[in-house]
Amino acid sequence: MITINKKRFKEHFRRKMNNLYAQTLEEASNEELFNVLCYVIKDMISKDWEGSRIYQEKAVFYFSIEFLLGRQLKSNLLNLGFEDTIRQGLNELGIDLDEIVESEPDPALGNGGLGRLAACFLDSMASVGISGHGYGIRYKYGLFEQKFVNNSQVEVPDNWLINSSYSWETVRPNRALLVKYEGKINMEKDDEDNLKVTHKDYIPVMAMPYDIPIIGYGNECINTLRIWKSEIPTRDFGKSSSYAKNQAASYEDALKYKYYAEEISQTLYPNDSNYAGQLLRLKQEYFFVSAGIQDIFRKCRRYKITTQDLPNKIAIHINDTHPALCIPEMMRILLDEEGLSWDESWNITIKVMSYTNHTILCEAMERWSEDIMKKLLPRMYMIIEEINKRYVNDLRKKGYSEEKVKRMAIMYDGEIRMANLCIVSSYSINGVAQLHTKLLKEEVLNDFYEEESYKFNNKTNGIAHRRWLISSNPELANLITKLIGNKWIKDTSHLKELEKFVDDENVLNRLEEIKFNNKVKLANYIKENNNITIDPNSIFDVQVKRLHAYKRQLMNILHVLCLYHEILDNVDLELDIQPRTFIFGAKAAPGYYLAKCIIKLINCVANLVNNDPRVKGKIKVVFIENYGVSLAEKIIPAANVSEQISTTTKEASGTSNMKFMMNGALTLATLDGANVEIYQQVGKENMFLFGLSAKQVLDYNKYGGYSSKDLYHSNKLLKRVVDDLVNGFIPGLGKEGREIYDALITYNDEYFVLRDIDEYADAQQRISNLYKDKIKWNKMSLINIANSGIFSSDRTINEYIEDIWFKGCDEDVQNN
Ligand code: 26M
């Protein structure tokens, strides 16, 4: 256990300030204070943070093109158990820890769900105590900062490395590696008749590793997130002829080359659903994959692990298809560098790789043009081609129809299908919630499921409860510990014991009070940042997530418009409406026009409703700018209602649904993604369900039969709000209204907004009615918290460990 002593901490802190900045504490800015604190903590953990544990047991390497870490200070202090001592120590030095916490940059090296999940998994791998490490990219610019200008989204670059470094990271120039692009592949027989593969005339790019410590909760486990920065090679990596050639190039060529190299880790792609096929993206994918796989082999050589023993010593996890090139890259090293045969290499690779699918949206499936692959990564191309050839041969031997072979092939019609590559080459394929996995098995990947059903399994997502409950909602965490002790922190299944208090009015009142306090804090933030006054006594109804048509923020705002009409229609009657604040937070991919139109619509409706005196503040709409991890930590603890309203079948899992539940919000949901598991935990009487079933959606998609126009013409209230989009009723909304109108009416409402909105409105009405009965509401809230334990990512990670990583490939089953 790492221990801390207040007196020594204070001395250490002063000394570090002097070492780093040659100044006194009084002269330091908050950013400098943060940096100093960060370095002091790194000093304290440095003994425990070294690689020696690797290979004592099996090590897991989690490859992800995104890690949405969020701020680390609070979470590190919590996991180390240092928070109280450091808070006091700093206090005695005249420094407020909370101010330092707010000066930490928030590394936004991810888009949303997938990247945040990777960060929660790192926390849990360290906290359950396995040697589990992340490999990713150190983007110079993370996800853009969002600003609203004239109600529309404007993207500003996220310059998170403004001081060119990040205090948690340690750069390791000695461990830089070379990644090779383009060039030619030479195959020659050597004197002993062995095939020798060499890569000639390639463009070398250096991968520079930056390590971030990942600290486990209450144990000595400190793992590493290694993210790579791309640079021109600054030293000779062995016999790199191309490097020498580039040294001799003209000044202009040297600049071009510098740009070529540095561009690779420059920016995170801000897409989270649409595959676009840009060359630079493929460069990024190979960049961190090649560096990571080479790094793993280097470690294995250092610890004298034989290639045959690899499957017993390491597990490589592919987070969505973005790191799929792990497969051919591992094959390349085994074949070309280790000199193994194809069969030997394949048998090792397939026992090491596991893959998670995160989406069934067709447009998100990665496919790379064969021509691009051949030119940029010629050796990867050859290996994929060989994997495909052998696989397709096997399928044909089994007598499958050409139709079926076509569907299952890795390469087809000039394209490489990365999901197919992952499925064929991994021993485990998992979905991220029960329904999602079922859809993979029965619909999207059915051919593969019929072929190798033993590979498929479900791992319902989870969240780092230490960050999402203990750090972000300390009052609630303290209440829980006061009621049931602290066992739940290590094992969240103990939360169930809270159910004992379901009839305890003191506890219920305290729960309400804590929620109210969190709402006041959020209201203050919104006042300061948006200059909108909101009433903490109103229902805080929250939808925060990426903006996408399938997530149906549109249905939410159209319902707000319905309420607005209702108020105006009855302006003299003083309707007994439960006051509500509708809170939105969402970034749209910069190229996703419809999503941007919906952002503008929400902002315009907010202006209209918030400034109409006839509304008398009964409903308010707030769109919080620049939603991200740090904001989520402020918003989620303050929510009464959690909006999880995606078109059934479209949201693979969702994870904010779990965060809200754990913080005592009640869920308003379709039976989609992990909402199904929430329903299994609390029953329909403790949440608000509505909307089409999965089967209904699948049937509409297969057989047709849905007409949004018919609904629009037959439902007056619906027609009225849809017409509002185009008749000038919403000031400031221009052509964007038409775009949305067309999506709903002209293009037959792909996501069934109009089909579900009536039932949605009913569910909203039930919420309003229930909120009047505070005791009942608080009981439901308590039941939700008590049953949220299974959504800890510790549970998820333990399942990955048991069923996938440490179990490995079950050969007997495979041979059946
Ligand atoms: C692909 C190609 C080019 C550029 C970007 C991408 C891309 C980036 C991120 C595609 C998808 C990306 O993320 C998808 C995602 O976040 N999926 C979400 O994963 C969560 C964790 O499993 C689930 O909870 C969500 O339901 C799912 O939408």
From TrEMBL:
Gene3D superfamilies: Glycogen Phosphorylase B. Its cofactor is pyridoxal 5'-phosphate. Keywords: Carbohydrate metabolism, Glycosyltransferase, Pyridoxal phosphate, Transferase. The keyword Glycosyltransferase applies. It comes from the Bacteria. It catalyses: [(1->4)-alpha-D-glucosyl](n) + phosphate = [(1->4)-alpha-D-glucosyl](n-1) + alpha-D-glucose 1-phosphate. Transmembrane segments: none annotated. Its EC number is 2.4.1.1. Pfam families: Phosphorylase. One of its GO terms (molecular function) is 1,4-alpha-oligoglucan phosphorylase activity. It is an enzyme of class 2 (transferase). SUPFAM superfamilies: UDP-Glycosyltransferase/glycogen phosphorylase. Belongs to the glycogen phosphorylase family. NCBIfam families: P_ylase. Allosteric enzyme that catalyzes the rate-limiting step in glycogen catabolism, the phosphorolytic cleavage of glycogen to produce glucose-1-phosphate, and plays a central role in maintaining cellular and organismal glucose homeostasis. Phosphorylase is an important allosteric enzyme in carbohydrate metabolism. Enzymes from different sources differ in their regulatory mechanisms and in their natural substrates. However, all known phosphorylases share catalytic and structural properties. This is Alpha-1,4 glucan phosphorylase. It comes from Terrisporobacter mayombei. The gene is glgP.
